[in-house]
Amino acid sequence: MRKYSVQMTLIFSVLSFLLMMFGLGWTIQNQFFSNGAAEVIEKAKPEKEASKKDGKVVVALGDSLTRGTGDDSGKGYIGYLVDELEEKSKEKITLHNFGVKGYRSNQLLNQVKQSEIQRQIKNADYILITIGGNDLFQSGQAFVDMDEKKITQARESYLKNLQAVLVELRSLNDHAAIFHIGLYNPFIDLNDSEQTTKIVRDWNYETNKLLDQQKQAIYVPTFDLFQLSVNDYLYTDKFHPNAEGYRLIAERVASLITW
Amino acid sequence: MINLVKNEMLKIVRKKRILVVAGIIAVLVALFTYSQFREIERRLERFGDVDWRTTLQQQIIDTQNRITSSGISDEWKSELQLRIQQQQYYLDNDVNPMEPGAPTFVRTFAEHSINLFLPLMVMVVAADMVSSERSAGTVKLLLTRPVKRWRVLMSKYITLILSVSVIVVLFGLLSYLISGLIFGYQGWTAPVITGFNVEGNELNTNTVQMIPQWQYLLMEFSLVWFVALIVGTITFMLSVLIRNTPAGMGVMLAALISGAILSSMVSSWESAKYLFMINLNLTGYLSGQAPPIEGMTLGFSLLVLTIWGIAALIVSFAVFIRQDIY
């Protein structure tokens, strides 16, 4: 028996050794001497549209507000919104949150051109967008200096991008309602509030105008929510909303969604 | 010579080392399979039965968000960026990087074991190959025979190579068989993307090729085997040099663990790339991870490891032939 097991081990080990040597040879040949001519394998045709959905699909696009920055529970207005909708209706809600912190309108435009995002958009029943905050407030010196010319420039390119995004969304999905969450003025408590308010108001006005030209596109104002007691609703960075602020936005959007 | 090798093999089998190693591997595989199974279950509970594309897209978005958060080191940032580009490539080509099934489990498990777990298993066999004979005194019996010393050592080394091969193949077989119980045995022909070239922070996809998973596994395991062999050779040298088996193991362990730690923090110490333990992660080149030090390539690592292996072998033979045995 012992002799037998030694024999077996020997044979098995020699076979393993040969296999591994062969593999190493192949690896070296493949990695160093093949000209990288990609062998195309027969890809199984993906049944992309097959996903039979039950319930409603919400796709959220945009910046840190969509992500929920500033909310300690990490939900953001999207999270509270879904909570509320689930309470309101008995339907199952599937949420796809594609928000990325710091996104500007041009980045969003790039994002909606990606195939997988497009696939999700096609299935969506509701599309929620927060964009523009970074275009305006993070444009660096321009906002601090209240350089009107530069801000107008930023707005023009923002509107152009948003327009392109909306057209793209519509071409992918002609039945979903699109909600665009407007900007509030986080600096309303500071000096120059008159000027900043004017800038934000103009910005929102132009956005609203743009959305009105689209079918089933709704502009959701948030300016008034933060107008009176802005500090109660802002996170410690004095820029993003806190949990309470997000809840306010969510309530407002929830009241607009009906089925 | 064949008889000598047989004799050595007999010792290995008698000591039941390979059985011990197989046992350890089986237990670990069962452990990881279970934990991954729980992970999948939890995800199902939370997100429902979702398409892998959705999950992958969500991962990309999450990583994008992590990059933008402040207080993240530049290195980590560029690594995350690479990961995003790679995942995006998978998504664009409609290839699931995590095709469910035992082969995928084996692939990731081997990827994670190459620089610490498998070398440790090899050490179990290699560490006392010579030193135990000396501490037990049996080496005298061996050397009083009319056989040249180098042949005695050679037979031991050949036996080591064979046992390393057994361990690596057993590792693959066991993890395939055990994880297959839960994940299923399918997925050999699923496409895998390899050949990503990392250039600075950019992912070069010109040389990318798509190969079936079985081929990828073969390539991956041959690299795992090569690493195991080099680690085995160096342990073998220590076993010749240091009479005390635990001391030899300690040295090797320290080297391996320091390698695992160093790999994540040496990027600014460039000459560390000539240390063997930094070069152990060969499978990373296949899957397209950023190397621990910029400029390292598969060819470079293979070369460094080969040189270390040959040097260890020369030292072992030179010492063993001249050594006083008492």
Describe this structure in words.
The complex is a heterodimer of chains A (259) and B (326). Chain A is of the alpha/beta class and 259 residues long. Chain A folds into two domains: 43 residues; 205 residues, 3-Layer(aba) Sandwich (Rossmann fold), CATH 3.40.50.1110. In chain A, 52% of the residues lie in helices and 10% in strands. Chain A has ten helices and five strands. In chain A, helix 9 links the parallel strand 4 and strand 5. The mean pLDDT of chain A is 84. Chain B has one domain. Helix content of chain B is 70%, strand content 4%. In chain B, a hairpin with a 2-residue loop joins strand 2 and strand 3. The longest helix of chain B has 35 residues. Chains A and B meet through helix 1, strand 2 and helix 5 of A and helix 1, helix 3, helix 4, helix 9 and strand 4 of B.
The portion of residues assigned to helices of chain A is: 40-55%
Uncertain segments of chain B: none
**Alpha plus pi helix count of chain A:** 10
What's the helix-strand series of chain B?
Answer: HHHHHHHHHEEEEHHHH
Largest interface (CB within 8 Å) is between: A-B, 48 and 53 residues
Individual helix count of chain B: 13
- Which word captures the global form of chain B? globular
What is the CATH topology descriptor of the largest domain in chain A? Rossmann fold
- Regions of chain A with pLDDT < 50 over 5+ consecutive residues? none
Portion of residues within helices of chain B: 55-70%
In the CATH hierarchy, what is the architecture of the largest domain in chain A at level 2? 3-Layer(aba) Sandwich
Alpha-beta classification of chain A: alpha/beta
Overall number of strands of chain A? 5
Structural class of chain B comes to mainly alpha
Biggest sheet statistics of chain B: 2 strands, antiparallel
**How far apart are the first and last residues' alpha carbons of chain B, in Å?**
25 Å
Q: Percent of residues of chain B in beta strands?
A: under 5%
Tell me the β content of chain A.
5-15%
Q: What Rg of chain A is obtained from the alpha carbons, in whole angstroms?
A: 27 Å
